[in-house]
Input
Amino acid sequence: MHAWPASEVPALPGKGRDLRIHDTATGGRITLDPGPVARIYVCGITPYDATHMGHAATYNAFDLVQRVWLDTKRQVHYVQNVTDVDDPLLERAVRDGEDWTELAERETALFREDMTALRMLPPKHYIGAVEAIPGIVPLVERLRDAGAAYELDGDVYFFVECDPHFGAVSSLDAEAMRLLSAERGGDPERPGKKNPLDPMLWMAAREGEPSWDGGSLGRGRPGWHIECVAIALDHLGMSFDIQGGGSDLAFPHHEMGASHAQVLTGEYPFAHAYVHAGMVALNGEKMSKSKGNLVFVSALRRDDVDPAAIRLALLAHHYRSDWEWTDQVLADAVERLARWRAAVSRPDGLPADALVEEVRAALADDLDAPAALAAVDRWAELQSSGGGSDEGAPGLVSRTVDALLGVAL
Output
């Protein structure tokens, strides 16, 4: 599966700062020192509907991570998956009377278009669950053969108690885990499981649903968590720098994935930092496909909203915060974009070297995009009153906003 084209990232004078970021597992900020190649895995979409603002906010956060690392003169090895076979996708295809593969391909293509328009830097590896199946089957077999997985009516489950670190990612108690498992795709009430929290690794073939050859597992399809583990281990190995996604993935998805990988390899941790973006609401409720309360990136683009304004609307909120999308949020972003473009259109201006360092410092401090925007706002306001004579300043500001914030002025 191919990703989307990369926009050019301008080079800035000097060097950026190491990223200090909030780690869900420890509950505090840690400073990451990845070495010359930074490694990040971000969980991708289940392509049964278009990209909404919740998606866009999540991928915007991890795009900033990439940009901070690139500014430190590191390479970035970024991997993202596409869950192109799963219950919600199959259910939507049945509802709409559409072939599930055509639905997945169409929505994945639209997602690529949205990411390109928003200037999100693409992953180095963009992998679908279906194409990963040949690598998933041996991992499930290894877990089963090691006694860390068991069969139940043909399905294969992971036994969470085999990982001594289980629970370290989300730090939730058993009851909270059980409730979230039921809410987020698990089946804690299924009779016969060793532990109600045990997640499915391999689902035996169901009538009328797609299935693949699973070798000794029989025909079926992979569970959600093992999909990402197989892709991450294949392309990044253990102990990569950041495992990322929305805050609703901390449990069960990232918790289970970490346990799968740690039992498979005997190593700890799966990732050095677990980083989670907040939720975006509309009309008082979290945007979600199940609720249908969605604002789509593609719909805004069709209405001729500048993608740079959409991106500024996302950047106006700290990535870990939960916030609500409103018409005013977008109007404020459109107005900010106009002010910034007017400021950099002048032939000269106030020196901007200090601004570059302000933006760098803000983003290195747990991706504080609102502080970075405020710094550019101050420069633009002073610029509007004139008085500067630095001919290179407007260009430097434009390149800084592009390189670090992904906004083309």
User: Anything to note?
Assistant: The chain has two domains: 20-277, 297-405. The first strand starts at residue 20 and ends at 23. The radius of gyration is 22 Å.
